[in-house]
Amino acid sequence: MKTILTTTILAFALTGCGGLLNDPSLDRTAGATRNAQFGDATMTNMMISTGQLGYAEALQARFESEVPSTVLFEFDSATLTPRAQQVLDRQASWMRQFPELGFSVYGYADAVGPSAYNERLGRARAEAVLRYLVSRGVPRSHLEALVSYGEDRLAVQTSQREVRNRRVITTVSGFDQRHPTVLDGRYAEIIYRDYVASAVPPSQLSLATSTGAVANN
After folding, report:
1. How far apart are CA 154 and CA 156, in angstroms?
2. What is the pLDDT of residues 155-192, one digit of tens each?
3. Please, what sign has the CA dihedral across residues 23, 25, 31, 32?
4. Taking all residues of the chain, what is their mean pLDDT, rounded to a whole number?
5. Nearest to 91, CA basis, from 63, 119, 117
6. What is the pTM of this model?
7. How many CB atoms within 10 Å of residue 33?
8. Where in the chain are the domains?
């Protein structure tokens, strides 16, 4: 599946934007380490950060447009339903297409019961999703964060049972620091491989440091 990103999205991705997908306050109990810098050290930190995070947001939009990002659970349960497994199969297939990327999973619960219990339940749901994705061939190292919000951040504001609040959301968190193309700083190749169509080979592309746009050499 080779969906073409538009020029507008590409420009947005390389210039970056204000909203960040990676919240440093998140509880990363999955054991992943995320460094402050991304890619080639010869590029400025600002250029690298805005370029990567902007593109992660563009990829998140693509992820949500091509596969469901949310799975739902039965009341007081962390067991994956058949429908949830079908959704996660699609997520895993999408993830395997993009080996440079890392992903985060966020577990939630509805507001019925004690808050501490719901936090544990949200975590158990996130862990169930993580294990299933790994069983479907997603490298464990690509699942960079495991976060439980419990009954916080309800999708539907109610104290009653609500299936839309019993969920796990998967997001694109950024580039995998350990992937060779990221460590080499080859962002043009990452962006152009499978993501956009271009008549210019990736090796002839470079990031223009003054504007953050892709320019032909």
Report:
1. 5
2. 867 777 888 888 999 999 877 666 655 545 555 455 54
3. positive
4. 68
5. 63
6. 0.61
7. 9
8. 7-216
Instruction: Give the pLDDT of residue 14.
Output: 40
Instruction: State the CB neighbour count (10 A cutoff) for residue 136.
Output: 16
Q: How far is CA 155 from CA 60, 67, 123, 168, 204, in A?
A: 19, 19, 17, 11, 45
CB 55 within 8 A of CB 191: yes
Low-confidence ranges of the chain (pLDDT < 70): 1-56, 156, 176-217
Taking alpha carbons only, the member of 174, 191, 209 closest to residue 103 is 174
Structure tokens at 86: 């079908």
- Number of helices and strands in the chain (H, E): 6, 6
Handedness of CA 186, 187, 193, 197 (dihedral sign): negative
- Return the CATH number of 7-216, one of 3.40.50.720, 3.40.50.170, 3.30.70.20, 3.30.1330.60: 3.30.1330.60
> What six digits make up the tokens of 154?
């309800």
Which is nearest to 62 in space by CA: 88, 101, 34? 101
Give CA–CA dist 72/60, Å, rounded: 19
Q: Considering the chain, what percentage of its residues have pLDDT values greater than 90?
A: 29
Tokens of 61: 């939009």
